Amino acid sequence: MLESIADLKRVKQLAKDIELERDELALQLQTKAEQNDAVLTDFDSVSEKLVTAAQQISSVRTVGEIAELRLRYGPLKILDQLEALFVQQASKTAEKSALDEVQSVHEAMDAVDTAQNALYLEQWRAKLKLAARQAPDHDLSAVFQRFNDLVRQEAQPLMDRLESELLASSWDSEDMAVPETEFRELSTKIYSLNALLLPHRNDHEIWNFQCIAHNFKIKFVYHFVNESVQKPSSVEVYFRFLEKYLDENLFKCINIFSDPTAADLTENFVHQQFINHILMPIREKVNTTLTKIATGGSNESLKTLMILISQIFIIDDALLKKHFYDGVGLVAIIPGEVLDTWLSFEIESSANQFRKIAQLSLDKSGHDLSKLLENLYAYFEPFFGLEYNKLMDYKLKTTTAIFMDLPHKYRDFLFKSREDGSASYTDEAQFEQTLWKLQNLLLVRKTIDDFGDRLSFILLTNYLNAATSSAYPSVFSDVLRLYDEAVLAVRDSIIHRLKKMMNVSLRNYFKVNEWANINSEPQQCSAELVTSLNLLVRLISTIDKFDLTRDISLAIKSELLNILVHYMMDYVVNLNKFSELGLRQLELDFIALKDSLNFSCSAVPQNAEEGVFRETLEVLKLKYKHHDFFDEFISKKYVDRREFSGIRDKLKITYSTDSELANALYRLL
């Protein structure tokens, strides 16, 4: 814009500037137009691609085509939905096809002549099994039952024939020749038909083994149809009959009916199933009786129930250990409430026996309790030996309430007892009573410890550790710990009684003060020591007659030796002066005391305390040894220096401390 005359001079320049701005604006307009064209082109391309994708998705017909589109377009939700629909469609199609097949088989089973059933059974079974997998939500029990009826219809004549021929042949009688091949082939045929049952065969009722066990059932019914199992001896009679039958026929059955041409009819399988099926009539008889007795309510019924259950444990244990039967025995038919009743009865029964033992004197109670525990283990061993998971908690309860609780109660009983409450007992009699306590504790502890090494309790320990995430070395660990503590406590009580009696007995000996005046060679112990020696001999003889472990006996005697050493040091050596012969008399007295302890393995010294005592006597003897090389030790300067390597080397001193050596040397000054 021109504002003055002077601006006229710049007209040309202004015109150029305006022209440049016009060109620049034109360029910007062209660029924007090109960008808009590109956007429109891209939009058209995207639209075309979307149309193409939609067409491709709408034309998809298989899961495989969906996978290809997923690779091309990524994880689209519409593809997931389509795939789910196709899978559902395929499932419904297969299900419809399966149901059509089931209907076809059902019609075929009705249409085919009975005589031709055998030709089609396996084919029909394969189709029905496949249909069951493809139509899991449909109930095919009716068609299964129809098929199973045809299988049984085919098998029944064969079963009747095998059962009849086995009975007629008396194959289970001694030294009877039987057509083994014919029986084996017939049995295998029946077994093969049995395996066709849908949805699966009942393994507790295998047709060919029902036929094989028929002879036993006939004999069992013949002998025991009128026998009442409520008689305590009845189940034992049944088992003897069963055991005799197995002894005579188990391996004969295996030889005849195991078939190497049939995949399943191995020797082991025949072994187990033969026992399993001949147990059937006994199971039925015992089960019926258990129900009757359990509702009886009388004391006699309860007693019979306990005997019956115990016999069941014995039977099952023998089947396992003697006949190697690993199936479920008779114990499986015992209801839980009956087992609870049995366990309560056994716990109360053992508690009653313990109460009787607790009334006995100490010289009998420990032995009788140990014997009771051993007898109880022998009684419960068949029960503990059964490998049946439902019994594990009952085994643990039995162990806790009987094999752990009774020893625990006995330990408490020993600690609370007061030697029959008699204050008139002499010290020696009370000492003997305490020894009985110690022996009884050791005896019962050994019994419990031995139990821990038996397989039944090792398995129970493993079960307990697994159930409680623990690491007990033995199920009896807590009881053993309590007994170890009790043994130490009673051992210390025995030592205390010994110390008390010896202290009183040695008082006259401690009063002797003529040691420095003894001037004749000693020939025997001091007269004042004779009474104490006699007492000590009696006490040690009493200890030795008890069945104590060697470590406990040694600990008592070793501690008593320490007590005697301290008495000698405190009341004799430290309170008296000694002549040379007086020291010999003291040494002779000490040897007499030590010999009275009757160590099983005697040594000199027996322990460190005796070593110190003997070394003290050797130091005191220096006063009467006239050798120059000993003179240096008998001086206050040497003692005060507390450097005793010289005297240690000369006198072979190893047990005494520097303080003990100094005390002995000071007595020489």
TrEMBL record:
Extent of the signal sequence: none
GO biological process, one term: regulation of ER to Golgi vesicle-mediated transport
Name the record gives this protein: LADA_0C01838g1_1
Gene3D superfamilies on file: Dsl1p vesicle tethering complex, Tip20p subunit, domain A, Dsl1p vesicle tethering complex, Tip20p subunit, domain B, Dsl1p vesicle tethering complex, Tip20p subunit, domain C, Dsl1p vesicle tethering complex, Tip20p subunit, domain D, Dsl1p vesicle tethering complex, Tip20p subunit, domain E
Keyword Phosphoprotein included in the entry's annotation: no
InterPro entries in the record: EXOC6PINT-1/Sec15/Tip20_C_dom2, RINT1_Tip20, Tip20p_domA, Tip20p_domB, Tip20p_domC, Tip20p_domE
Coiled-coil stretches: 8-35
Record's GO cellular component terms: Dsl1/NZR complex
Transmembrane domains' residue ranges: none
Organism lineage: Eukaryota, Fungi, Dikarya, Ascomycota, Saccharomycotina
Protein source organism: Lachancea dasiensis
UniProt entry keywords in alphabetical sequence: Coiled coil
